[in-house]
Write a structure and sequence with these properties.
Blueprint lengths: L1 H20 L7 H8 L12 H40 L2 H11 L14 H21 L5 H15 L3 H14 L1 H7 L2 H34 L9 H12 L1 H11 L11 E3 L5 H25 L15 H9 L2 E3 L3 H29 L10 H16 L15 H7 L1 E6 L9 H6 L9 E3 L10 E8 L3
Antiparallel strand pairs: 1-2, 3-5, 4-5
Helix pairs in contact: 1-3, 1-14, 2-3, 3-4, 3-5, 4-13, 5-6, 5-7, 6-9, 7-8, 7-12, 10-12, 11-14, 12-13
Length: 458
């Protein structure tokens, strides 16, 4: 009951708050939908699975479907960690591990931004659960579930290669792993894994340049920091809430005679302890090393899958008896970490336009903008607007000229002067009168002015 109350409460908050208050989808969700609607086997943003699922959810229930899908991934991640923890540290300590995960920022504010990282988190956690049951508990049938899960993980994000490599190394380095590898199930599972990822591998051979382009562009997301340093800071910052809960629970500084309730468990076997620590620490270390060696960030910027076992690792390290000091203060802090982030997002949408003269991207009127341009294209051409991302392999400038479309850009003046990049690609374009859109909370901000040009079908 404690687990489901905590997990579903967080999921409800991060589903309803974005659905009610977000005027535009967060992060790279617009690109995800632009690529997902084509149902291709890959793009410059990576493997296709997240894009396909995002498009299906959007077609079924719009933006609400996307937010609900993202939170379903978070709940499934928590459940997989809880199930893994029950097999290693027992039910009560497994619940503590999941409650600590509320303090990991990667599962809070960024979670409505559904994409490869959010989808990779539950697949990563399930992979660890299936691997533990196959190797740690010697339940051989789980090798096949592990293979299927790893295949889906690689179709969701290339960061799954880190988990795959770590599992191979851990299996070869541990006596229990080598013993399990001598049976036929792991090798049959390898064949199943190859079958799952085979279509994307075929596409990857022809789309490698697009993948490199996406990795190169991710460097700009780090600002002035090197990708490795940016990733290290992101990993540290995302654990600040967890560190706060641990510090408060420890009761430091406390009186020597201060007493606290004990939550105990059976001793954790050495293999299980090693398993948790390796798969809690090694993924982040490998990701930092890859970012340092390559000088690129790529899909390593989505850190949710890299920190799946952080809470469980803290519980394992805490020992067989956990003393819960200052229960009321710890409970208040945990509730604050659960509720405060969505409340602060809503307050920011309402206050920033008045107090700071700025707004969040999620507060911009995306629906009104989309309806206007779709409607005007429909009225002028007699057919619905069809569009695709500009750097995708399935659309060219020739397609744009043949099928028509609308070019848009931020307008700095009333003339709506188009940027030079568009003028070079479409020398015959004629800018229209810029269109202005009000925000839901306008504050001291000017209207959003967008320049545009109609490209009629040939």
């Amino acid at each position: 009951m404690v687990f489901w109350t905590a997990a579903l409460t967080q999921a409800a908050l991060w589903t309803l708050i974005p659905a009610i208050f977000y005027g535009a989808p967060p992060g790279e969700v617009p690109l995800l939908l632009a690529i997902g609607r084509e149902f291709v086997l890959g793009s410059y943003l990576g493997p296709p699975l997240a894009f396909w699922l995002g498009e299906v959810a959007f077609r079924i229930a719009g933006s609400f479907g996307l937010y609900a899908l993202a939170q379903a991934c978070i709940v499934l991640t928590y459940w997989a960690v809880f199930a893994l923890g029950r097999g290693i540290v027992g039910t009560r300590h497994a619940i503590l591990a999941v409650l600590l995960m509320v303090g990991i920022a990667a599962y809070a504010v960024p979670s409505p931004n559904f994409g490869p990282a959010v989808l990779a988190a539950p697949l990563w956690a399930l992979g660890l659960l299936f691997y533990w049951r196959a190797v740690g508990e010697r339940r051989r049938g789980y090798w096949f579930l592990l293979a299927l899960d790893l295949g889906l993980l690689l179709l969701a994000s290339y960061v799954g290669l880190i988990l795959l490599v770590l599992m191979i190394v851990f299996t070869a380095a541990s006596a229990r792993g080598r013993s399990a590898a001598q049976r036929p199930e792991p090798w049959i599972a390898v064949l199943l894994l190859c079958i799952v990822v085979f279509p994307h591998v075929i596409w990857f051979r022809s789309g490698r340049s697009l993948i490199l382009e996406g990795i190169e562009e991710s460097f700009s997301a780090t600002g002035r920091l090197s990708p490795a340093l940016w990733l290290m800071f992101a990993l540290l910052l995302t654990h600040l809430g967890l560190a706060l809960l641990v510090a408060l629970t420890s009761g430091w500084p406390r009186h020597p005679r201060e007493r606290a309730p004990e939550i105990d468990r059976n001793p954790v076997e050495p293999f299980a302890r090693t398993f948790v620590f390796v798969f809690a620490l090694a993924p982040a270390l490998m990701a930092v090393m890859v970012a340092f060696a390559s000088g690129r960030l790529g899909q390593l910027g989505g850190i949710a899958p890299l920190v799946v076992l952080s809470g469980l690792a803290v519980i394992v390290a805490a020992g067989d008896k956990i003393l819960l000091y200052r229960e009321r203060l710890v409970s208040s802090a945990w509730l604050g970490l659960l509720v405060a982030p969505p409340v602060l997002v809503v307050l920011s949408i309402a206050i920033f336009p008045w107090a700071l003269g700025s707004d969040l991207k999620i507060a911009q009127p995306a629906n009104a903008e989309g309806r206007f341009y779709a409607d005007i294209f429909q009225r002028r051409t007699g057919k619905p607007l069809a569009w695709a991302p500009e750097r995708s392999p399935w659309v060219t400038l020739t397609d744009m000229r043949a099928q028509g479309g609308i070019l848009v850009w931020p307008a700095a003046d009333n003339s709506g002067t188009a940027p030079e990049t568009l003028k070079v690609q479409f020398p015959e374009m004629v800018p229209e009168v810029p269109r202005s859109f009000p925000r839901a909370v306008q504050g001291m901000l000017p209207l959003i002015r967008i320049g545009w040009s109609m490209q009629r079908p040939q």
